[in-house]
From TrEMBL:
This enzyme's EC code(s): 3.5.99.2
MF-aspect GO terms: thiaminase activity
Domain Thiaminase-2/PQQC: residue ranges: 9-215
GO terms under biological process: thiamine biosynthetic process
GO cellular component, one term: cytosol
Keywords for the protein's UniProt record, in alphabetical order: Hydrolase, Thiamine biosynthesis
Pathway(s) this gene product operates in, as recorded in its UniProt entry: Cofactor biosynthesis; thiamine diphosphate biosynthesis
Family: Belongs to the TenA family.
UniProt name for this protein: Aminopyrimidine aminohydrolase
InterPro entries in alphabetical order: Haem_Oase-like_multi-hlx (IPR016084), Thiaminase-2/PQQC (IPR004305), Thiaminase_II (IPR027574), Thiamine_Salvage_TenA (IPR050967)
Organism listed in the record: Pelagibius litoralis
Task performed by this protein: Catalyzes an amino-pyrimidine hydrolysis reaction at the C5' of the pyrimidine moiety of thiamine compounds, a reaction that is part of a thiamine salvage pathway.
Length: 221
């Protein structure tokens, strides 16, 4: 049987191409992205990472074995550390103080994506939850590596680029790919189909997250 991860990646290949081609990511790689847009992104991403870390902890709590529990526990800790370290430093450097950061409200896209993940953590099977989480790793790893190859060392966003092209992040990504493949092997075809739907849905939200940051999306009312 074809590995779940292979089927899943094939099903989002055109969408991945669109993500890599987004103005946000092309300008990030070129170093020409406006600081306002990056600041908006980092503020929204802090909110995202806090919710994402909760979804990862819930995945750890629901994991069928110690190996899966360890992967998600470590990932939850990693998400919190990125949120605190990278975001703490970057926000300051881009001129955002703590009170401003704390007042920031989630954009419609950030709100929808985080609630999608947290809803999956509460009401979907562990397998579907893992598949919903997978694009958060996999797409960031691929985008991080792609941008890292294209970017020059003096790129103003080098720290962000280094975080997501770090081989340790690659290893974490691979462990979640393998975990999803194992989960899919044990799942029936209906469950596999639900996993694929969740994987695609998160991937669409990844596109929307970068697009919404570029547009500095707010609530229409
Ligand atoms: C929106 C989003 N998806 C994935 C990651 C990777 O952790 C991130 N930092 N932000």
């Amino acid at each position: 049987m074809t590995r779940f991860s292979e089927t899943a990646w094939q099903s989002i290949a055109p969408l991945y191409g669109k993500i890599a081609d987004l103005p946000f990511n092309r300008e990030l790689a070129a170093g020409s992205l406006s600081p306002e847009r990056f600041r908006f992104y980092i503020l929204q991403d802090s909110l995202y990472l806090a919710a994402y870390a909760r979804a990862l902890s819930l995945a750890a709590a629901r994991a069928p074995d110690g190996e899966a529990a360890t992967i998600f526990t470590r990932s939850a800790q990693g998400a919190i550390e990125v949120e605190q370290a990278l975001h703490g430093g970057i926000l300051e450097r881009f001129g955002v103080d703590r009170p401003t950061a704390e007042k920031t409200e989630a954009s419609p896209t950030c709100f929808a994506y985080t609630n999608f993940l947290l809803a999956a953590a509460q009401k979907e099977s562990f397998e579907v939850l893992a598949a919903a989480i997978l694009p958060c790793f996999w797409i960031y790893w691929k985008i991080g590596c792609g941008i890292s190859e294209a970017a020059r060392p003096e790129n103003p966003y080098a720290e962000w680029i280094a975080t997501y092209s770090d081989p340790a992040f690659g290893a974490a990504t691979q462990s979640v790919v393998d975990l999803c493949d194992r989960a899919a092997l044990a799942a029936g075809s209906a469950e596999r189909a639900r996993m694929l739907t969740a994987f695609i849905q998160s991937s669409r939200y990844e596109w929307m997250f970068w697009d919404s940051a570029y547009r500095q999306e707010g609530w229409p009312v």
